[in-house]
Specification:
The structure is a homodimer of 412-residue chains. With 412 residues, chain A is α/β, with parallel strands linked by helices. Chain A folds into 2 domains: 283 residues, Aminopeptidase, CATH 3.40.630; 114 residues, 2-Layer Sandwich (Alpha-Beta Plaits), CATH 3.30.70. Chain A contains 12 helices and 14 strands. In chain A, the strands form 2 sheets. In chain A, strands 1, 2, 3, 4, 5, 6, 12, 13 and 14 form a 9-stranded mixed β-sheet that branches. In chain A, strands 7, 8, 9, 10 and 11 form a 5-stranded antiparallel β-sheet that branches. In chain A, helix 3 links the parallel strand 3 and strand 4. In chain A, helix 10 crosses helix 12. The two termini of chain A are 19 Å apart. The interface between A and B is large, with 61 and 62 residues.
Chain lengths: 412, 412
């Protein structure tokens, strides 16, 4: 594909800056919760940009927006895209980059007077972040038939409003049906949101799949007592059990090795006073692995340890799963295509899993799918300081262009 | 002392109920922060009760109140008492019991027409709890010359008012001097506030001293990163270090054995989210031991472990001492007298240290001092559910009467 047109670096970078102005935070970054006024403004701006490229825009019943750049044949399109909602303290690249790079691909082809056999569609999906409505990846989940539309529309956000009400309010309750998309393949370009590519000095991450996730919440009920008058043997210390579970989670991840991750990010003690034994602790454990069987073992081990440890300390354990997703493996041929196109451009590549969830894992249910990662400086994301070097942004978009073109022109 | 008069159980119990009405909480218990309006009302009521017993009342410059029941000789008095301030969610017994039992002793002797050789004084000390003004045991500390009066009066409380202003406001800025009390001996009756006597079914705790205390605060600065994208080896997890310090503190207490206690009661993580590695953790460690040398070793070990553990995880450790008191040993002869008098009454006894701080540890600086404990049901204290069985309250007061009478009548 040495003859492929080159994307316009300046236009791509300017578009990222421009989209970042919607919901901009004073010190940098953006706050653009799904279906908020800022999201509406960003959607309107993005749709205008789509129409300016002579793309045909349709909005589906969950507010996902698809813009089609016609091919020379009437066939199922090659789809790309991501999301433009952000967390409350988001950056400029998470999601936005994949959508705008998709539009930049179309703009580049259009300027060069090129059309592929299949249509190219660029989409942005509703509420990927899950920062306002649960679950995350809501729009793509509904699009592929993974969640009934009515249930999704009735979902109430952190501010009490429902998805359906907010879609109506901002004018994105569309007519296009959901549940059975006709798509040839899906390719999503995204920042890594982790430190691996940056640390290893690699240009392009070839994403083989998405880790499985298990979120557990443990509620530990002990007994609040005076730290100075209660002998060690008579204590029922919920905080100590929480600490031991935390240490165990870390040891488990090291013992499993490979792609096993374990994080205790949230712990709340009550009454949380220096001289009072904690009566109650609520904590979360975030387990991830690309290996579904290992993840299931890790979950069972965590629960087993927590049960034994709580009992040993006379503490009552409650637990619930806050989330559970099996690992997703992307299409091997498509993954290989990403690696080839990057290498043909002389870029270094690393195969890795995605640690975060992405719309691509939903699309993978209905069509061959894959992702392209570019490096995140220091792995920072969900943070106004989120940054990717300009040359990496440009390289990633060029790889996307070549992968899309190859997919949309291939025979069969 | 078989001929000693018996205290009036009904009168004692009624007085506890009556005093509990000042600052009463809706569901039980009291909120009577030092020098508050509720404390003023409780002080006025207690002083009235003292005067009704023909006791001579004096108020010192830090608001401690002393009521004297004259002896047959002009000699240094035997002092008893405690405090009537409470924490925000206090019970009816902590402090109050020692003051009212002292007055019940005087009432009983007076009804029997008995006077001891030495005067008997019953005191309540200002701001023992430390729930409004720091440090705790403020009144007794100033009384024995451990803190300059001016500094104590300038102490600002959690609501911004100073001790001096509040003493003036409630009318308890007294004239009696502080700093060099003339006292023969001090005996304080108190609820245990721990589970030991209740668990072991013992009537009377013979308190041999007060544990030394060391409060450490650790501030751990790591790096906030995505739980799904940050490999275990690249993490700087402040929450994990906090958990490992917590587990180490517990292991240390078990390894030291004896009277070593270790408690991590307070931990705060930031940002405290399920899928974000904690950037910051602030935690406390409460160490106590009756053995001062062991306590110093425990403190050094904790600091050493925290330093190593933080470094191992790339986390920056800050630390400060929030409090440090050496252990206090009570007067052996007085401790023995408490045991003897309880045993002569046919009561079971157990020698134990006090885990909490008490005014007696301040008085121990200037005169032979000791304490008598009665059982706390389930060890509950600083809690509206704080409870001591009526027969234990009566037994404790009877032991107090006999100890005081013995002390106040002894030769020399």
């Amino acid at each position: 594909m040495n003859g492929a047109p080159r994307i316009n670096a300046g236009r791509l970078l300017e578009s990222l800056e421009a989209l970042g102005r919607f919901g901009a935070l004073p010190g940098g970054g953006t706050n653009r919760l799904a279906l908020s006024d800022a999201d509406r403004a960003a959607r309107d701006w993005t749709v205008d940009r789509m129409r300016a490229l002579d793309m045909t825009v349709r909005v589906d019943a969950i507010g996902n927006v698809f813009a089609s750049y016609a091919g020379t044949e009437q066939r199922a399109p090659v789809l790309t895209g991501s999301h433009i909602d952000t967390v409350r303290t988001g950056g400029l690249y998470d999601g936005n980059y994949g959508v705008l790079a998709g539009l930049e691909v179309v703009a580049t082809l259009r300027e060069a007077g090129l059309r592929t056999h299949r249509p190219i569609e660029v989409a942005f999906f509703t509420n990927e972040e899950g920062a306002r409505f649960q679950p995350d990846m809501l729009g793509s989940l509904v699009a592929v038939g993974g969640l009934p539309l009515a249930e999704a529309l009735a979902t109430r956000g952190i501010d009490g409003a429902t998805v359906g009400e907010e879609l109506q309010r901002i004018g994105y309750a569309g007519q296009a049906p959901v549940g059975a998309p006709q798509v040839d393949s899906f390719i999503e370009l995204h920042i890594e949101q982790g430190p691996v590519l940056h640390q290893q000095g690699v240009d392009i991450g070839v994403v083989e799949g998405v880790q499985g996730i298990c979120w557990l919440e443990f509620t530990l009920e002990g007994c609040s007592n005076h730290a100075g008058t209660t002998p060690m043997a008579l204590r029922r210390d919920a905080g100590l059990v929480a600490a031991r579970i935390t240490a165990f989670a870390h040891e488990l991840a090291l013992r499993y090795g490979g792609r096993q991750l374990a994080t205790v990010g949230a712990v709340e003690l009550r009454p949380n006073l220096v001289n009072v034994i904690a009566q109650r602790a609520v904590m979360t454990v975030d387990l991830r692995n690309t290996d579904g069987a290992a993840l299931a073992r890790a979950e069972a081990e965590m629960l087993g340890f927590a049960t034994r440890c709580a009992a040993e300390h006379g503490v009552v354990l409650g637990h619930r799963r806050l989330a559970r997703f099996d690992p997703v493996a992307f299409d091997p041929a498509l993954v290989e295509l990403v690696a080839q196109e990057a290498q043909e451009l002389g870029l270094s590549t690393l195969r890795l899993p995605s640690g975060a969830g992405h719309d691509a894992q939903m699309l993978a249910r209905v069509c061959p799918s894959a992702m392209i990662f570019v490096p995140s400086v220091d792995g920072l994301s969900h943070n106004p300081g989120e940054h990717t070097e300009a040359h990496h942004l440009v390289q990633g978009a060029q790889v996307l262009l070549q992968v899309i073109t190859r997919l949309a022109n291939r025979a069969g």
